[in-house]
Amino acid sequence: MTPNDTEAQLHALFVRGLEGDAAAYHECLRRIGAHLRAWLGRKLFGWPDDVEDLVQDCLLAMHLQRHTYQPAQPLTAWVHAIARHKLIDLLRAKSAREALHEELDDELPVFAASDTQARETRRDLDGLLASLPERHRLPIVHVKLEGRSVAEAARLTGMSEAAVKVGIHRGIKALASRLAAREIAT
Predict the structure, then answer these.
(1) What is the pTM of this model?
(2) Torsion sign across C-alpha atoms 102, 106, 112, 115
(3) Which family does the record assign (predicted)?
(4) pLDDT of amino acid 106
(5) Which one of 19, 62, 161, 182 is most buried, by most CB atoms within 10 A?
(6) What are the CB-based long-range contacts (under 8 Å, 24+) for 43-46?
(7) Is the pLDDT score of 108 beyond 60?
């Protein structure tokens, strides 16, 4: 079977699924899942335990975002775009977790800073965060300050994972603008 045949079959199944054919939709997800297992297995060769979790994340994202699929476009390109984004999210999370386990050097200047300076910094940060709307502030606090995952922050805030990511991005962008404005003012 050529890649074009596979694309045509998957596309037909997916479109039938979007039209309400549950059996076609199930078969499409089964085939895409098998394809993603192989593709992600090659990408995550050193982390086989993460492959199945990532496949399930991709299939769930596809299901939740199926309304964004444009039937005139290749289905496999849309699927791979979702899988690439999920893979990047996983690699970022792994990198962040590994950074948390690095040993600290007691000679770093950060340990020489006074408690007063830390309190002032925290006060300034709290003030900046307070200036943000809740939809931006809470995702930043949960993910960036408390170290929670995007999924955990979504559960805590009642937002979707995509909304949490957007909230973080827009919140950090707003904070950067406010800090830049402060620099210009001083």
Answers:
(1) 0.50
(2) positive
(3) Belongs to the sigma-70 factor family. ECF subfamily.
(4) 52
(5) 62
(6) 43/87, 44/87, 44/90
(7) no
